[in-house]
Amino acid sequence: MTELLLPAGVFLIALLYSSVGHAGASGYIAVMSLLSLAPAFIKPSALVLNILVASIASLQFWRAGHFRWALFWPFALAAVPLAFVGGTIDLPRQAFQWLLGAVLLYSAWRLMVQARQPLEVKPPHLPLALLAGGFIGLLSGLTGTGGGIFLTPLLLFAGWAAPKQAAAVSALFILLNSASGLSGWLVSGQSLPGGLLPLLLAAGAGGLVGSWLGARQLAPAGIKRFLALVLLIAGAKLLLS
């Protein structure tokens, strides 16, 4: 049963998350945990799937003309080193997860309310972008995610990017953070688990479909609603785990 349910779950998560420029790490972890897979399998598998789906989403949104380098680099420059720092810190997880879960659920609610409201886009000031990127990178390392669930809502709420631009920037942001996390895993002497091919095929198919829909078919209001659903899933996972 696991051999059927796991690829199906991975496909659906990759499709949903990639439509908003995300890669699905929190969703993969949730599905694998529900199926009682070992932690030694879950973490590296989620990172590998994240890298694949984020790569596909980055390419799709870039080819559709939504990526903005000037918006991307300040956040990534500050985030990547602090994501490494965050990965070395061990906080009291229950209170921390509840706080983040509540923030994500509030963000989901705001996105649903504001889905059809017009957005006036203005670029962030460089110091503010660096500060926000560093903080998100730290949160990324602390939570073991790619950071997109924090970056995309911030870009939208602050008016720094339109929905598809936010998705494009978040996809590459997640790719870099996930690659950094996997490198740390391998450098520490760990290895990749076997049996990943069916999951990679499922994630690749879901990522292709979802990112194509997000980059070329979904209207901005649709992107916001899909993102709200992603944040709702991630927030519920943090509160219930």
UniProtKB/TrEMBL annotation:
It comes from Inhella inkyongensis. It is a multi-pass membrane protein. Keywords: Cell membrane, Membrane, Transmembrane, Transmembrane helix. The chain crosses the membrane at residues 41-62, 69-89, 95-113, 125-154, 166-187, 194-215, 221-240. Its main location: membrane. Pfam families: TauE. The keyword Transmembrane applies. It comes from the Bacteria. One of its GO terms (cellular component) is plasma membrane. The keyword Cell membrane applies. This is Probable membrane transporter protein. It is found in: Cell membrane; Membrane. Belongs to the 4-toluene sulfonate uptake permease (TSUP) (TC 2.A.102) family.
